[in-house]
Write a structure and sequence with these properties.
binds adenosine-5'-triphosphate, 38% helix, 256 residues, alpha/beta, globular, Rossmann fold, three-stranded antiparallel beta sheet, ABC_transporter-like_ATP-bd, single chain
Length: 256
Amino acid sequence: MQLKLSGVGKSYGGLPVLSDISLDIASGEILCLVGPSGCGKSTLLRMIGGLELPDEGEILQVGAPPEGSLNPLTFIFQDFALLPWRSVAGNVSLALESHRAISRAERAAIIADVLSRTKLGDFANAWPKQLSGGMKQRVAIARALAVRPAVFLMDEPLSALDAQTRDILMDDLIELWSRERFTAVYVTHNLQEAVRLGHRIAILSRRPGKIRRIIGIDTPIGARTHQDPELLAIQEELWGLMREEAEAADKELTHG
Ligand SMILES: Nc1ncnc2c1ncn2[C@@H]1O[C@H](COP(=O)(O)OP(=O)(O)OP(=O)(O)O)[C@@H](O)[C@H]1O
């Protein structure tokens, strides 16, 4: 499924937050969204996911979701959003319980499948409090996979994790994408994540966020390494584009 955004704008109480955002996101593409704090990245993601409506422009989902998809779009958040009183399997089950057409046996099969795909097969009965941050985010990814979405909407999914765990989860996401070729919009502050995971990186300006540049990366996602000089050069370029605006946005948030 593709996403088509044209002329999208949004204001809150008269304050323009996003302006004239036009983007085509192809099926199977990971588009990273980067930009200074408060430029509207999460707002854009929420609008793509239908949690909020744009004031201007339109957001279209083009094409059919995968067969058996229960939700065409699904979110993965920074804070994992797990229910502490449910086991790992119980948390994944939650995404399926409102779908009455799925029998208990089918649900159990889907849960077992997504837990094995996220390397959680041995942790089905564990409780969230027993898990590390990285494992908790894997549960959130498993829960998202359970509904067979066409598009993942990820809002800084790795930013609550330490550097090593982030690297491991990035590798997991790359492995998962290589198998499943999902479409994703991935919001991040971390430029290293953007150059590892994004087919394209859209850089937003300060509020009201507009698209300043879109940078495409040709190296296949599965072939990217940490020390790849081309990726490091793109990371530098991104930082060059963002630095002044990030500093200005930071001052604005701190001083008024
Ligand atoms: N529901 C809302 N009501 C009023 N203002 C809002 C609402 N949601 C977001 N905003 C404002 O809109 C602007 C953009 O917020 P948003 O969270 O989308 O930015 P962001 O780029 O994701 O920021 P960050 O990088 O800091 O997470 C901010 O000034 C924020 O305060």
